[in-house]
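INPUT
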Amino acid sequence: MTQLIWLTIALPVLGLLINGLFGRRIGNRTVSIIAPLMVLLAFLVGVGAFFETMGRGGEAVAVPLWTWVTIGDFNVPISLLVDPLSLTMVLVVTGVGFLIHVYATAYMVHSDDHGHDHDDRDFSRFFTFLNLFIASMLVLVLGDNYLMMYVGWELVGVSSYLLIGYWFDRPSEAQTPINLGSNTEPVKLQPLLSPAASGMKAFIVNRIGDVGFALGVFLLWSTFGTLQFNEIFPRAVEVSEAMPSVIPWIAALLFVGAIGKSAQLPLYVWLPDAMAGPTPVSALIHAATMVTAGVYMIVRSNILYSLAPGVSMAVAVIGMATAFFAATIALVQVDLKRVLAYSTVSQLGYMFAAVGVGAYTAGMFHLVTHAFFKALLFLGAGSVMHALHDVIDIRRMGGLKDKMKITWITFWIGGLALAGFPLMSGFFSKDEILAHVFEASPILWFFGILTAGMTAFYTFRAIFIAFHGKPRDHHLYEHAHESRTPITFALSVLAVLAIFGGLLGLPTFLGLPHFLNGWLEPVLYELPHAAEEHHMSFGAEMGLLATSAVVAVGGIFLAYFFYMLQPSIPQNLARSTRSLFALLAHKYWIDELYDTLFVQPGLKLAQAFADGLDKVVIDDMFVDGTARLIGRFGGILSKLQNGYTGSYALATFIGVIIMISYFFLR
Amino acid sequence: MIGQVPLSYYLLLSAILFAIGAGGVLIRRNVIIVLMCVEMMMNAVNLTFIAFSRYLDSTTGQIFVFMIMAVAAVEVAVGLALLVELNRHKDSVNINDFNSLKG
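OUTPUT
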């Protein structure tokens, strides 16, 4: 199976070719079999390769396919790398991807008011793009050089753009203002971007990060003369000693790419708006897989980051700042998917904090568990949307637990895992990150634990408002119903994974096995004179674990107290801290700030160039000017064609005489 | 007999004929006369061929002349047919009226 790993990319490509070229002819039912089937087969290949690699003890195997570019000594082979790290990503991408494909086969069927089902207008286009995404993501994680990683990096960006703007003709939507009681002015909210605009925003913001990534790749090439992982990493230490400043630059530039792709400060703004895409897309691309590409990249380049401690610290600080910042915004969002989106930004921040302090395994661990429970939460939110005819505002929900049992239970499980409730998957991974962060810097840990409390609070705020209490919109409540089997199937499987995902990395200080530690070890490079790994005392570890548990439970209880026992508190609190509340509800006005600082000047500059340079110089001078010049010259020459045969004959005679006299007189 | 008339006489006559033909092509307006002038130029060439054929005692020139006369016959047939059609179309034999391709 290891040598056949290329099948994991080829199968989704096959699926996208079939569905893309013949989707309308073979019918939507066939499409909805082919697309998930291809991802399932890819998953099975991945599982086969996983067991083989386990049997080899995690040794990396390169699977060369062909040579892509050879220019002088610049040589880029197309070759896949099968090692524990890439296989972890392959299994997450194809495993979660398969469940989401299954889910989407039901999600992309809309039921109208009379209970009739209608397939989405472009059913096959959706699955074509979804398969394209899977294939692109696998190129990113399986490539064994930075150029293939970059190609995958761009391909997932394109798939993301296509899928966010999937409903490209839907308009921008206004949001109902937040009511703060009878005699206070409500807090107005900005309208939501249209899917087409959101897709563009995501693409352009990602592009800013990609420039950094591309520069990093160029610098790698000019430093090492190769882009192959297995040639760069062994030489990194030696190069770092010869040129101490170049490795930090490479690490920093690559991290700029990660900031864009993984939605960190200050380029996180695209991710909340990406929720304009269909919910399976939000779950797969904007929660479980694509946005974690930055974390994967840093873990893959771990030696470069270990050699650049300053950059690593910046990664950790930016990660933790993002985690904290996004969590505060999530506290007051009224859109269920946006709560989850900000929570994703926040959890990605945790992962970066982990890899920043050198806890690469912990970062990967949280990446995997986060993929499980966040995909689960998004799919649950999609199930709710589906039942309520695309209503996503939690203020119009309430009491849904009686109508949608499975969605309710699985959403609770996802919520518990996200909140870090003891023994759920998120508990172990988040605690491992926080323990490593504590070792590096107690201040960062303080923000981390604060964020953990807020995470528990906002997650259960959404759950209590949406699923508990009394129905707020009776018409919607009456029409609500449990979703169909493919949806509940995906939810149930992910719920099981969200509960037991923690078994991958049980706390080692309790003497429990940590599977990922051993599994990822071959991928992580040791620095030659690394400091002896010092472990915290048992008591400190235990204390951190207990603190995490207490904070998670406390956050959940606070949400329970606020939204179930004393529902008047949140409103009163919001009224008394109105300016702070409005600041959070408007997401710190960051979008407006960027609009004023960058977007409007950019548009004006573009307009100036369009009017000045493009219209006057390019269009008028070059394009039209050339045509006019040739026209005038032709006008002059056409005077010679005067229509008198005698003058033509005269010209011929004169010509002949000139030629003859030339031959005779020379 | 030809032996008494020097070659230069023939060539001179031929040159005169050619010049008359060329002048006619250049200055005459009547398209039939222009066509006849072209024929005259051609026959001036024929005369040169014949003269040289005799002078060099070779038949090659005469064979050329036969070829040219055959081609000239064909050319006249086509040319006259074109002229008839042009006349029908424009109701004129003035060569300067046939100028619809001018720039």
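end of record. The two ends of chain B are 55 Å apart (CA to CA).
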